[in-house]
Write a structure and sequence with these properties.
The protein is of the alpha+beta class. The chain is built from nine helices and 16 strands. The protein binds zinc ion (ZN).
């Protein structure tokens, strides 16, 4: 399966300038192509073909004085920017026609220099290389220092350089992992009820308390936000304050992701099949519960379970959200009618007394097993995810982590990472990326920073 390996990179000032220029060029090409397609649409003309667009907004544009600077950056990056536009359109049309499930996808929008996330992608054609000294060589950018937190398992097919709202830079490599990473079979299967009183309740009776990271940080965020509004619009001080807010948000998100990774790894390790109730998170997010829902981050969590199941040969399935899991007695199957949220436990006429959430989790397990035996629930499609730095390593101070955007994640469905076909020259594949230079032990975990992802040393089950 294809996975992303994300690492923090630390470009030097001149490299940051070169990156900024490349971000800008990629943005201009994207916007020019988008405008061209929009204009064609308004005039009732057919959409220009990919080749035509590429010629118009890249090749011919370079020859004009207004766009001559496009020639100063890697052509592959510009091609990949067009590929992004194509993907965006493809997802939009698939959503309109209903072939794409889930939330409606909006048509592509113009990119702005003020966007929170800037990204450019280099494919093999761009001849990026990981050097023996551990630096990442990018054409027309330079040799970027990378903090390798693990080894790449194979030669990457592309690398995306991302600058986030907090001003941090990341390199995200796409790597095709070996087919068989299947873990030894586990004897148990589990149903999971996701909720607000507990983050997750498992059918074996385990209750996982919801972390309230965002709430704890809310005060600080509010203070920082207030600082922004006091600053004069457009001023440098305001920009600095905005970055501070972004950093605080990033810290909270990283902490939550770390915690969820440990929990999902433990659940996948311990169970052969995992079933969760497919919550309507988008719907709940618009209600009064929005803050708690956002805080809980269920969709990120179920996405982790999904891709880890696919990776390690486990079964994962979502249960129809209309299954009345909280109304059904898991002992006798009787549907006892809706119960308000305040009812934490109830007794069925058959005599069984149930904890509301554990009973629901048991029903999720039963529904999942029934679906699975009908072969309906067995389909596994990896979702988009970010993985932890130390995938299976307990991180005692996760709550203080600020860096866990690094790690492994699965590709987003429909994500376009195919190499561009602009370069037809054949060449030997680049040497496999060198192993991480002997890295110092992480002062925090005592674990070496390099080495393959450890999945045999799983973390503790979270409390
Ligand atoms: Zn009953």
């Amino acid at each position: 399966m294809q996975l992303r390996y994300n690492f923090r990179v630390y470009p030097e000032p001149s490299q940051r300038d070169a990156l900024a220029q490349t971000f800008g060029c990629a943005r201009v090409v994207f916007n020019d192509a988008l405008r061209a397609r929009r204009t064609a649409h308004e005039h009732g003309e057919p959409y220009p073909s990919d080749g035509e667009l590429s010629k118009r907004v890249i090749t011919l544009a370079k020859a004009t004085p207004e766009r001559a600077w496009l020639g100063e950056v890697s052509a592959v990056v510009l091609q990949q920017s067009l590929a992004d536009l194509n993907t965006a359109y493809r997802n939009f049309f698939a959503s309109v026609t209903g072939t794409r499930k889930g939330r409606k996808v909006a048509p592509p929008r113009l990119r702005s220099r003020k966007d929170n996330r800037q990204a450019i992608r280099f494919t093999r054609n761009a001849r990026f290389t990981v050097l023996g000294n551990g630096r990442l060589r990018l054409p027309k950018i330079g040799d970027l220092p990378v903090r390798w937190s693990r080894q790449l398992p194979a030669e990457p097919s592309s690398v995306t350089i991302i600058k986030d709202a907090a001003g941090r830079y990341f390199a995200s490599f796409v790597v095709t992992t070996k087919e068989d990473e299947t873990l030894p079979a586990a004897g148990s299967e589990v149903g999971i009820d996701l909720g607000l009183t507990h983050f997750a309740v498992l059918s074996d009776g385990t209750k996982v308390t919801a972390p309230k990271f965002l709430r704890q940080a809310a005060r600080r965020l509010a203070r920082l936000q207030k600082a922004v509004s006091r600053k004069v619009k457009g001023s440098n001080n305001r920009k600095k304050a905005v970055v501070k807010v972004a950093r605080a948000h990033a810290r909270v998100a990283d902490t939550r992701r770390d915690w969820q990774h440990k929990l999902s790894t433990a659940i996948i390790r311990d169970n052969q099949a995992v079933y969760v109730e497919d919550l309507c998170v988008a719907g709940l997010g618009r209600t009064r519960l929005a803050k708690s829902v956002h805080d809980a981050g269920w969709s990120g969590f179920t996405g982790m379970l999904e891709y880890k199941a696919a990776r390690y040969g486990r079964v994962f399935a979502r249960i129809d959200r209309f299954t009345p899991t909280s109304q059904t007695c898991s002992q006798c199957g009787r549907i006892d009618g809706p119960k308000p949220l305040s009812v934490r436990s109830w007794t069925c006429p058959c005599g069984a007394t149930h904890d509301r959430d554990i009973n629901a989790a048991k029903n999720v397990l039963a529904a999942g097993q029934a679906d699975n035996s009908n072969d309906r629930g067995a389909q596994i499609r990896p979702a988009s995810m970010s993985a932890p730095r130390h995938e299976a390593v307990t991180h005692p101070h996760a709550a203080r982590s600020t860096r866990s955007v690094e790690g492994i994640s699965a590709l987003q469905s429909g994500e376009d990472v195919k190499p561009t076909k602009t370069s037809t020259e054949s060449r030997p594949p680049p040497p496999a990326p060198r192993a991480t230079p002997p890295a110092p032990s992480s002062p925090r975990t005592g674990q070496p920073r390099s080495g393959p992802p450890r999945r045999t040393a799983p973390p503790q089950r979270a409390p």
